[in-house]
Amino acid sequence: MNRQLFLFLCIINLTTAALAQQVTPTPDQIKAMTPEWTGERSGDGRPRVSDALLQRLRKVGTEDAWVLLRNKGYQNQFEGDWMVIHPDSVMTGRVVTAQYYPTRPDLDKLIRDKGKAEGRIGNTNSWPIDVLKDGDIYVADGFGKVVDGTLIGDNLGNAIYAHSHRGVVFYGSVRDMEGLQEIEGFNGWVKGYDPSYIQQMMLGGINVPIRIGRAMVLPGDVVLAKKGGVLFIPAHLVEYVVQNSEFIALRDEFGHLRLRQGKYTPGQIDAQWSDEIKKDFLRWLDENPGKVSMSRAELDRIMKDRTW
């Protein structure tokens, strides 16, 4: 059995386990789901990308990050066409997933009984909130339901922000939009608003693999949410995306400066750089250390690996 097929079967089995045995996979199951990550993990087993990288990611352009992910073979990580509560804000954070389905009474009873045995309280759409830690983002597949598909209102929105100091990404809807807008620091990317309350929806699992539109999302992925859409970055690629995006931004800033100055032609800047331009770029970096977020060792490694 090849490795890709093995991992796919593991994901299917983990999703089934969340439905049949527990509401959320165990830490060991989540580790098995995210084997490429070798760094720190949260207590529930999710990869824990550092706060410093999350902060640096805020300045990364969606297009740059998207191209870098595609170059690594991850072509299904973006979803656009959102209603954004605060469109001019950027949100980054670690993913806690939740899967919702149309209600089927026998399966809904099984999930609720499992949750009760695990000590979970309240309605099932609040259970993922209890899992959230600082820096987490509640990401839910509500199968695009808007009317009667409102996963939260302003009460749960306040609870989400109190736990995570972030917000939500819902392939579904919310209610109490005015109240949610008033929660300072909270933001949300949702597929719609409706004054109705949630009906005929059941929780399928927490921290299981989910689909958000055309994107595939795992627990512990990192969200880059901007006005144009949401990118879900696998945890093990966040550092790669951040560092290379920062390098691209520096390269572009230098190139634009030299074009305005008339020092080089567009053909020289758009093509493979000559040794002369590369040396000029390095001098410019030395003269402008405040523009460089990464260490010089990181920068040297990136420049060595790139084809420019």
- Secondary structure tally: strands: 12
Oligomer: single chain
What is the number of helical segments per DSSP (H or I, 4+ residues)? 12
- How far is the first residue's CA from the last residue's CA? 38 Å
What's the quick description here?
The chain has about 300 residues and is α/β, with parallel strands linked by helices.
List the topology elements:
Blueprint: H1 3-20, H2 27-33, H3 51-57, H4 62-71, E1 78-80, E2 83-84, E3 91-102, H5 105-117, H6 127-131, E4 136-141, E5 150-152, H7 154-164, E6 168-174, H8 177-181, E7 188-193, E8 201-206, E9 210-212, E10 215-217, E11 222-226, E12 229-233, H9 238-261, H10 266-270, H11 275-287, H12 296-305
Parallel strand pairs: 3-4, 4-6, 5-6, 6-7
Antiparallel strand pairs: 1-12, 2-7, 3-8, 3-11, 9-10, 11-12
Helix pairs in contact: 1-2, 4-9
What does this molecule look like?
The protein is of the alpha/beta class and 308 residues long. It has two domains: 49-60 and 71-235, Glucose Oxidase, domain 1 (3-Layer(bba) Sandwich); 239-305, no CATH class. It has twelve helices and twelve strands. It has helices at 3-20, 27-33, 51-57, 62-71, 105-117, 127-131, 154-164, 177-181, 238-261, 266-270, 275-287, 296-305, and strands at 78-80, 83-84, 91-102, 136-141, 150-152, 168-174, 188-193, 201-206, 210-212, 215-217, 222-226, 229-233. Strands 1, 2, 3, 4, 5, 6, 7, 8, 11 and 12 form a ten-stranded mixed sheet that branches. It has a two-stranded antiparallel ribbon with strand order 9-10. Helix 1 (3-20) runs antiparallel to helix 2 (27-33) and helix 4 (62-71) crosses helix 9. The longest helix has 24 residues, at 238-261. The radius of gyration is 22 Å and the shape is elongated. The two termini are 38 Å apart.
